[in-house]
Design goal:
By secondary structure, the chain is an alpha+beta fold. The protein contains 4 helices and 9 strands; from the N terminus they run H-E-E-H-E-E-E-H-E-E-E-E-H. The strands form 2 sheets. A 7-stranded antiparallel β-sheet has the order 3-4-5-9-8-7-6, with helices on both faces. The chain has a two-stranded antiparallel ribbon with strand order 1-2. Strand 1 and strand 2 form a beta hairpin. The chain is globular, with a radius of gyration of 23 Å. The protein starts with a helix and ends with a helix. The N terminus is likely disordered.
Amino acid sequence: MRRLAVPFLLAAVLTGCSSTEPGKPSATDSGTATPPTGTSAGTAPVDRPKAVDLKTIDPCALITPETKTALGLNVVDAGTPLPDYGEGSKRCNQSYVDRKYLGAVHTLLNGGVDRLKRTTGESKLTELKVAGYPAYLTQTDSPGSVGGCEIYVDTNDGQLLLVDTFGALGEQTATRDGACERGKALAGAVVTALAAK
């Protein structure tokens, strides 16, 4: 009988000290607490102007005619989304008037910053801000090209907007810095349009 009383007593004491806030005991059921919002890594609030659900966004719609002209874009067309970016992801392909660079804007719906850091490697990412949103830049290699620049923008928990710009295949006058310059400008324009949604 004594063996049964100890576990029940211990359970009663621990239940009385459960809480939804660390360091503040309460008698409420901690299983009904809702997780905090505004976190991408699940640990701290993310400083972004507002969270935007990318499931409802067409990335081509973020490139206005004014943006197309200002950035020297030639063609802006919907592309086939990459399966690795999650069910329902979307893609918009771009080419530049000078034909030296190509690009794409993708919605990534299957993981946020934590996944990016895990798959790309935190040491290969450079933090920056794009239109007030936290973002991460990484330079990439591409066979037959000078390589490119990927900018991942943290627009919502578990989602990223990817702006990928790279030198055209076989283009000898393109540079990786040129790809990053164009990528940053395009990211700034599409994220500004996104924040207005």
